[in-house]
Amino acid sequence: MxxxxxxxxxxxxxxxxxxxxxxxxxxxxxxxxxxQSHEAIEIxxxxxxxxxxxxxxxxxxxxxxxxxxxxxxxxxVKTITAGLPVEPIAAGVDIIPxxxxxxxxxxxxxxxxxxxxxxxxxxxxxxxPVRAERSGHCKLRMDIxxxxxxxxxxxxxxxxxxxxRNSIKAAQQFKYRPRITNGQAIVKTGVxxxxxxxxxxxxxxxxxx
Length: 209
Known about the structure:
The protein has helices spanning 2-32, 164-171; strands at residues 119-122, 136-144, 150-158, 175-177, 179-181, 184-186, 188-197, 199-200, 206-207. It is an alpha+beta fold and 209 residues long. It has a domain at 119-207: TonB (TolA/TonB C-terminal domain, 2-Layer Sandwich), CATH 3.30.2420. The chain has a three-stranded antiparallel beta sheet with strand order 3-2-7, with helices on one face. A two-stranded antiparallel ribbon has the order 1-4. Strands 5-6 form a two-stranded antiparallel ribbon. It is elongated, with a radius of gyration of 69 Å. The chain starts with a helix and ends with a strand.
């Protein structure tokens, strides 16, 4: 009987002790892991920034101004005010004063203009044909206009046919003094001229026709 009572008391005491330790641990866990309120967390504690710090002031000394001599003002130009004319205006004269013309003696004048034959004022030298093998000439016939320009240029005779074309081209560029008859330039027809071509060898000797 005593043994049974002793066991009961021991079991009851162990249960009380176990229950007290359990309650103590629950209290400790509740206090240790109690969630804090989001309002209690200070954001400034995460990245603390000192807002009250002022940046250092930068001071720059202004440059010294140089003294500049101010130029004097321009001189004043004297102005002259023109006054009204004081002389009286002359009256117009409508009457032409009489005058006596001098006598002019009209004397008939006669003069004579001599007929003048045409002369070549500008004679262009012809171009030697490349195919020419010896010297030669061409006799040309043409008409001369009142201003001295040749026209109707034809070749009457050429020692070689190769000279014909260049002779006519050269003659068309001539400038003549036209014939004057009774003070007026007239057309002259049937004017003849001869154009000569002189061909030389490598030694400067003339190759005859």
